[in-house]
Design goal:
The chain is about 10% helix and about 45% strand. The protein is mainly beta and about 110 residues long. The strands form two sheets. Strands 3-9-8-5-6 form a five-stranded mixed sheet, with no helix packed on it. A four-stranded mixed sheet has the order 2-1-4-7, with no helix packed on it. Strand 1 and strand 2 form a beta hairpin. The two termini are about 40 Å apart.
């Protein structure tokens, strides 16, 4: 790398021109004994929600607004990358008393 290139890189770093990508987080939600835990969780667009079904029967994570539905086979884990901000209430179609809220920041 030549001196001029070094100067350009140093200047870019000083003034924040080179973007450093943010790391997406993984939020874990467990379904066990007909309970969603945690029942309220926050994440950001680009994060991944990992639903872990520890029960011996199937569940779903069905968004009340229709944005998504995740099918969770027994003793299985399924993930979903969040693409849209908002507060979404979701539930299990098979066990409607299993419900939770996911708040997604931009």
């Amino acid at each position: 790398m030549r001196t001029g290139q070094y100067a350009a890189v140093v200047t870019a770093l000083i003034f924040g021109v080179i973007a450093v990508p943010a790391h997406a987080a993984t939020v874990k939600v467990v379904m066990e004994n007909l309970v969603v835990s945690p029942a309220e969780v926050s994440a950001k667009v680009g994060d991944t929600v990992e639903w872990i079904n520890k029960d011996v029967f199937a569940h779903t994570a069905t968004a009340r607004n229709g944005d998504w539905e995740v099918n969770l086979p027994p003793k299985n884990t399924v993930t979903l990358v969040l693409k849209k901000a908002g507060t979404i209430e979701y539930y299990c179609r098979f066990h409607p008393n299993m419900k939770a809220t996911l708040t997604i920041a931009p």
